[in-house]
Amino acid sequence: MFDFITDKNIYEKVICDRIGNAKRFLWIATSDLKDLHVKKRNKMVPFLEILSDLVTEHVEIRLLHAKEPGPAFRNDFDRYPNLISGMERILCPRVHLKTVIIDGCFAYAGSANLTGAGMGAKSEHKRNFESGFITDNKNTIEKIMEQFDSIWRGNHCKKCLRKKYCSDFLDMQADIPYKK
Fold it and tell me: Could you give the domains of the chain?
């Protein structure tokens, strides 16, 4: 399967239909990270609640993002203490890709950040104009995973010209373990 999706279809086909069904792992890369709310049963909840549920089910979660999230996200994050140890995060100021990889058998790649206007349940008149594709093609997923994992492993850190903006790199240089 390879399907081009836009706007609200991203929310429906990635957030609603797939993320909550992850069994082994969920990798998310986003440039911008905001307080996203999604439908759970018949109410709207912070997306972090979905991630917290996955951590409870022992799904490994990696979040790769470019900048610190805003205060509303951080307040919601504090409501789900299992995310502190149950979700790995790396902040890299050069991250601009937007991908979701689930269990190595489903992937989204496109323009939508992990925000309400990008991937959230916003109304048609409040959403960004976004596009991307979803796939279960093994070769395509492997390439998306390799790009994500290459950044995750720090393959680009030594030669990066933006190290002074990267708190994770500075912590590694000072032998301070990154708080995950």
Answer: 2-173 (3.30.870.10)
